[in-house]
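Subject: complex prediction, re-run

Hi both,

The earlier run crashed halfway through, so I resubmitted it with identical inputs.
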Amino acid sequence: MKNIKKLLLVFLAVLMMAVPAVACNGNNHSGKVSVTDMLGRTITLDEPATRIVALTAADCEILYALGCGEAVVGRGAYCDYPAEVMDVPAVESGYETNIEQIIALKPQLVAMATMAQTEEQVQQLEAAGIQVVISNAQDIEGVYTAITMFGDLMGKQKEAKKLVDSMKNTFKKVGKGGEGKTIYFEVSPLQWGLWTAGEGTFMDEVATMMGLTNIFHDVQGWAEVSEEQVIQKNPDYILTITMYYGEGPMPEEEIMSRAGWGNITAVKNKAILDLPNNELSRPGPRLADGATMLHDFITK
Amino acid sequence: MSIRDLRTNDRFVVFDYVVLALIMFLVFVACIAIGSVNISFTDTIKAIWHAITQIAVPEELEFVYSIIVSVRLPRVICVALSGAALSICGGAMQGLLKNPLADGSTLGVSSGAALGAVIAIAIGLYIPNSPVTATMLMAMLFAFLSMLFILSLSYKMDYSLSTNTIILIGVIFSMFASSILALITSFASHKLREITFWTMGSLSGSSYYNALILFVALAICGSVIIMHSSELNAFAIGEDNARHIGVNIKKTRLTIMIMVSILIGVCVSIGGSIGFVGLVTPHIIRMIVGPNHKKLLPASLFGGAIFLMLADLIARTIISPLELRLGIVTSFVGAIVFVIIFYRTRKAK
Amino acid sequence: MIKLSINNLGVSYGTLEVLKGVSFDSVSSQWVMLIGPNGAGKSTIVNAIARGVDYTGDIYLDDRDIKTFKSNEYAQRVGVLEQNHYVSYDFTVREVVGLGRYAYSKGVISGKDDGEDHIESALEKTDMKAMEKKSVLALSGGELQRVFLAQLLAQDPDIMILDEPTNHLDLLYQRDIFAILSEWLKEKDHMIISVVHDLNLARKYGTHAVLLNNGIIESYGEIQDVVTRDNLKKVYSMDVYDWQRQLLEQWRN
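This time it finished cleanly. Structure:
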């Protein structure tokens, strides 16, 4: 049981966090940098960072989006986007975070998420002279904060502002069109028990922004729900984030072939979208891409 | 007057099976009628009627039909069959090893089966056009190998197979299998999500096809096990005594082990590890009908089905619209019963 | 007429040779007592005849190698009563005794054989009829041994192999069990081979004896020719004859 729980946590970790860190060249401003991270801790650097280890996938994505991929000298094991990040040495993250591995990479800065690391790990790193920055985005506003924070740390304030503005623009553009419609988010396929994303997840936030109603908005976070409930709530759209494993039917086909699901509006209309690449589950810049895909899908 | 005194040994016959079957049927009906979504009893009956008669479903009933016939019914059937299968396995192992604490989960056989299935997933084993999937086959194979390993080791260390030795070895083996499983998981990171969800396997989303596989496995293996009731009685009294009265002990042991492995493999690959059912049911049934396997095994089939259906009912409804894992409910009850059995057997010595 | 021949029997546990070159024959109506000090190899002979241990050499039952018998076939000819019984589940007396008929059950669905009479008579002979519904967990050691003796009687073999059947039992049970056994021996073509620690019992009930020492036969033959003062002295490293007389002397008054 314990093991299963652990595996689940690892899995949720993959889904929700990937925090990389970046060091950038060609800074907008050189000189002393002082930043308050998302836990309210103050981080002071003499210069914008040039070597950073990012433990969560979302932070990795932010750093690459800010154009400081070269400053990323280490990444969490689950960081997988963009593709170049795979060439960066991986370190264990989450429960297995290996402090020695991180120190060996000689970063000035380590970016991590609150949920994955312990106090002790942070203290160990600081004792080794490495600054720790905590990103803790719980909503889209939080993602903007994280981007701005990394912009400051890496000396990429302009790029950060540009990125945040572009995301805001995108959300403004796609922030409607779903009024009166319902959606069901599927995180795992049926045979493993239906896990969905409820209130407090990015999927729920994006859907709400578009005027869509998440049929499990009354559920907190990630949870296993009853199949009967899905049928009863009869969503107009289904969004699955299941990956295709190269065997058996595609996720959309699998959902459409389920017994008893034939009367669900989404299935009748084949209104099922598969976003298998964490676009809507990671607190990073690609949330805007995911939102656009969902918007295009419901308004096409 | 204890339950034991109520037992009228020779008279546990047709009447008792009728009573058990009746209870099982009532529980079955209750499990169909109650669920996460409220549906009136008349609608439930109507939906099932349409399913049986294959008469076209009227539009206003389509929703009910989907819930009852497509979702709830196959799940409850699979749960009942899994409960029956795991319980008969538990009963058989407890007799074979003369050990009231033996069960797929306490001996580590379920963990072994899960390991086999995960290996199949990790290396992408796939059998085309077969009703038996690669994961199922590997689960059976590893269940058997685990049991072989655990038993040989136990015999080597303690010929009398004392309660503590074999359970201890089972627990250690379970941990070992889990660590290998975690190791494979770390190496097969591209399959991480699939493996993670597999190990959390659940009976939700069970299909009639799953039910058919379970039924066939149970019909064949269950019959073979029940046909060995006399041999299991002899083993339960003592392996040496079994040999003296003419039981072919090697053949019997091998047969039972294979049947149990197949059943556990099928159950684990369809519904994941559901702990303690095989421990709890035969124990309770034994208190009612006595240790004679001729009654114990068939009664455990009913008892296991009833127990697991009720556990699943709790799992489905207690925190609706969310679901609890079935294993959480069974482990909760099972752990308590385990302690009681252990306490009683120790006290008896 | 039944005949059991043991030829050049040897048993080793790892490198330890517990039996070497043991040979003797016995036929119907004989009660062969296996005697000798602890560790002489008595129980090992019993285990070998019961097919519970690997051995070298040959054991023949009516000129047929016992290894060629099927399990149930052999149980119809040879039955075993052990010294101790550890029961975990509360089977009834009758259920345990009934299992004695296992070897005769026919077909896959082990149904009824003609054994009800055997079970009844076994329960009566051992005086367990009144307790037939009782749980074996509730019995005393002596009662439990009688249950397994009843099982053996129900099994109705030609040869009984006994391993210290009355060790640890109260004298009453000892006397009763030996009385039942000698009755059984006389019934028809029967044979008993038993390990007995108590030399008094051996002399009283045995017709023949095998005296063992360190896994080798010291002496074999009719009981009075084997259990002699000289033989025992050699094997037991003491004057057993003298000691037994001293013990009995106490009961004179």
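Chains A and C do not touch (no CB pair under 8 Å).

- K.
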